[in-house]
């Protein structure tokens, strides 16, 4: 018997002998639909139909169990009622199955008892050295070897789809078909009881038929492993495009009821996608558009876009939607404008956007010359073409022929320059548009879809930067402010001089040593400021004693801290925090601090820990980043020191798995460095 170390995920795809357990003549059952698809494989695979009554299915003989089959079975697809599923698994494992696909539902998604049954079955599968896809899934397909073990056929092509929803796969196949694309592999994730999305991503890295991996996932299980797998795929030249849920409370409820999934906050998923170099999309149509764009040219930075239109309205609208998608539509340099002017009539616009102003009707080949001029410019990262191209053929046979020739020319130019070209046309079904599609140029029927696809390329252009690995440290013993402060100071974060005190006399004595003005803080109170547990700017012993007596009378805190008052005049208050996500582990948050945190919500996220370079990128990504560089006479802060301080905080949090939350708010960034002014730890229960 194989050990778990010998388990092979590819057994799901490379089977030669397959079985459908639960084969049926009932057209309303998965066992029937799967049998129909399996019987299409007879030229390349041995197919066994298992029916508990032994009656013929679809005119072919069946067996009551795989014990009646004399040859080994590589892969079994199980579509029986939930109460019979475990027995079917036992039957398949005894027949030597290396892989099982559980179509049957009724397990973890139904509650505690279902989860217990699921875990028991998975233990059996792993003990046998086999693998289980699902349960509660739609099936598996590998068009490169003719494997069709799903309820619905899907068109062949270069995309592997890993989907936790069967219907989503069917809808996506329709959108991909509009781009002349289909699937190399399809695996329905289901409950991911055994084989998960990360395992399947890795199995595609060496699969020759897969050029790109599309994922619809609700539960990433081990989110860090997903990041590692997706980053490895990206590095191997197989980018990952992700559609997921979590942007609304309703979507989270739906995911939990559908697959028993645990979802993560959408900001956390965005951070994971940046770390892995994953392209995240928000709808199946958007996914198909981004897939088409990525397959048309190598991934690369997309920031500066040239807009090519054959009408002023389309030129202006395309420029607006491109800008809204996060792209830049800059004015072309004078040399570029001169080159375009030479190709177009005097009324044309050449500054960007480019408006052909009737050149399409007069000389449709101008589309090709203008596109080549734009792509040849080193300052143009991509071109968004919009308008009526594809409709000119309606004006006569001669123009129709030249439009087709121009379409071929446009596709050739796009291939040669290997820069993204997105074409929007109101005639997306025209012969000329189909030429573009068939030759790999993405065509969109809505200009906003084209712009968003380019915008997503721009956001996912950076190479993967998975989080740093940090060894675990000795555990934190309490969640007190003082211990948090001491832990952070020990990790290299600067704090003002301070002492822990228990009486007014002790407080005055400590202040004499640190120097006035000072801050008095009550210990053991979660939200000190809200509770009146912080007194700022105490200038002398009288003020300090009065503040201590008032605070102690009202709060009776177990201890107090006397801390030197920092100079806030030239500083910017930041917040840096780390929280533990149940799927992705520690996640860092950086933003404007103090009272501005909740008011402005100007924050950025990354998987922790991060280095100083990544911390600086987070700071620069804030909407208010300009104030860090100095505005209205204020000096610039030491961003390098602030970034280094942020990195230290994230490293400390990641090294302490017993810390559920760690926060420094404010972290004062000033021209002279970075200084922690508060700290909070929440230990995991």
UniProtKB/TrEMBL annotation:
Alphabetized UniProt keyword annotations: ATP-binding, Nucleotide-binding
Residue span(s) of domain ATP-grasp: 485-683
Name of one Pfam family that matches: ATP-grasp_5
Keyword ATP-binding assigned: yes
Source organism, top-level taxon: Bacteria
Keyword ATP-binding listed: yes
Organism name: Sinomonas humi
InterPro entries xrefs: ATP-grasp, ATP_grasp_subdomain_1, CoA-bd, NAD(P)-bd_dom_sf, Succ_CoA_lig_flav_dom, Succinyl-CoA_synth-like
Identification of the protein by name: CoA-binding protein
UniProt GO molecular function: ATP binding; metal ion binding
